[in-house]
From TrEMBL:
<comment type="similarity">
    <text>Belongs to the UDPGP type 2 family.</text>
</comment>
<dbReference type="InterPro" id="IPR029044">
    <property type="entry name" value="Nucleotide-diphossugar_trans"/>
</dbReference>
<feature type="domain" description="Nucleotidyl transferase">
    <location>
        <begin position="10"/>
        <end position="281"/>
    </location>
</feature>
<protein>
    <recommendedName>
        <fullName>UTP--glucose-1-phosphate uridylyltransferase</fullName>
        <ecNumber>2.7.7.9</ecNumber>
    </recommendedName>
</protein>
<dbReference type="InterPro" id="IPR005835">
    <property type="entry name" value="NTP_transferase_dom"/>
</dbReference>
<dbReference type="Pfam" id="PF00483">
    <property type="entry name" value="NTP_transferase"/>
</dbReference>
<dbReference type="GO" id="GO:0016779">
    <property type="term" value="F:nucleotidyltransferase activity"/>
</dbReference>
<keyword id="KW-0548">Nucleotidyltransferase</keyword>
<keyword id="KW-0808">Transferase</keyword>
<dbReference type="InterPro" id="IPR005771">
    <property type="entry name" value="GalU_uridylyltTrfase_bac/arc"/>
</dbReference>
Length: 308
């Protein structure tokens, strides 16, 4: 069910990465177009934004990403062929992607990090809060994380990040948040952020995952943010600065960017940024499909018991 949020209508999806972990499959095909069962991964992300009420989607792309635009555009020749065959089911599935949202595209140019990719969205977003969805994280539609984050942003203002508790041994793979509890069990106030810290230096095992709802004040911070870890402009560094500004400001003017909150997510998340996790995501989603699941689960059980 699509929800309506009149104050937040725009989603930004960074999609300029090279996908080197999936070479050679991504030599000529964007990693975002790799199929997860029978839809490209990027379509799941756009569907999530639309389900949360965000009808305006800006994709930050790079070279060799034209297939992304083609996928969300009409394909009249294919549609005509399916129509002549009377294949209404496949025709509807083909048209679904082009009817999802109002799509826009801008090229990042130099790949200077997630913070720079978000900054590329500034002319399109303007002075309104907006969402950022990273394509490597697929959130199960039965767990409406983004809608909850939008609700918290509308309640408290400022910015909201998605957090998950992870094994402390894995925290070096993520941004780590220093947090304080609030009166709401799934919401914390973020007082600091560190990008991919050593385990001993991590402020917590709350990891930032790929969903953000951001105050437009982040653009001003990103313009001044120097390259950080990996020589890239890190969105985490800008959010850390916003959190510090809010926590240390003594007056309302100093709190103009608002607080930074985190929604602690305990639902179903599928990581498609790693080859092993990508395969596991396909298996999990295929098992849960009504049209594929029963037969596939039967085969999978037999394969595991007989072949392994």
């Amino acid at each position: 069910m699509t929800q309506s949020h009149p104050g937040i209508s725009k989603a930004v999806i960074p999609a300029a990465g090279l996908g080197t972990r999936f070479l050679p499959a991504t030599k000529a095909t964007p990693k975002e177009m790799l199929p997860v069962v029978d839809k490209p991964a990027i379509q799941y992300v756009v569907e999530e934004a639309v389900a949360a009420g965000l009808s305006d989607v800006l994709m930050i792309t790079g070279r060799n990403k034209r297939p992304l635009e083609d996928h969300f555009d009409r394909n009249y020749e294919l549609e005509s062929a399916l129509g002549r065959k009377g294949d209404a089911e496949r025709l509807a599935r083909v048209q679904e992607s082009s009817d999802l949202a109002t799509m826009h595209y801008v090229r990042q140019g130099d790949p200077r990090g997630l913070g720079h990719a978000v900054l590329c969205a500034a002319p399109h977003v303007g002075d309104q809060p907006f969402a950022v969805l990273l394509g490597d994280d697929l959130i199960d539609p039965r767990d409406p994380l983004l809608a909850r984050m939008i609700e918290i942003q509308e309640q408290y203002g400022g910015s909201v990040v998605a957090l998950m508790e992870v094994d402390p041994a894995q925290i070096h793979l993520y941004g780590s948040a220093a947090v304080e509890p609030t009166v709401e069990g799934d919401v914390v106030r973020v007082t600091g952020l560190v990008e991919k810290p050593d385990r001993a230096d991590a402020p917590s095992n709350y990891a930032v995952i790929g969903r953000y709802v951001l105050d437009p004040a982040v653009f001003g911070i990103l313009r001044k943010t120097e390259p950080g870890r990996g020589g890239e402009i890190q969105l985490t560094d800008a959010l850390q600065h916003l959190a510090e500004m809010y926590e240390s400001a003594a007056d309302a003017a100093g709190k103009a960017g608002g607080p930074v909150h985190g929604v602690v997510f305990k639902g179903r998340r599928y990581d498609t940024g790693d080859r092993g996790d990508y395969l596991r995501a396909i298996v999990r989603l295929a098992c849960e499909r009504e049209d594929l699941g029963p037969e596939f689960r039967t085969w999978l059980r037999r394969y595991v018991t007989e072949e392994m």
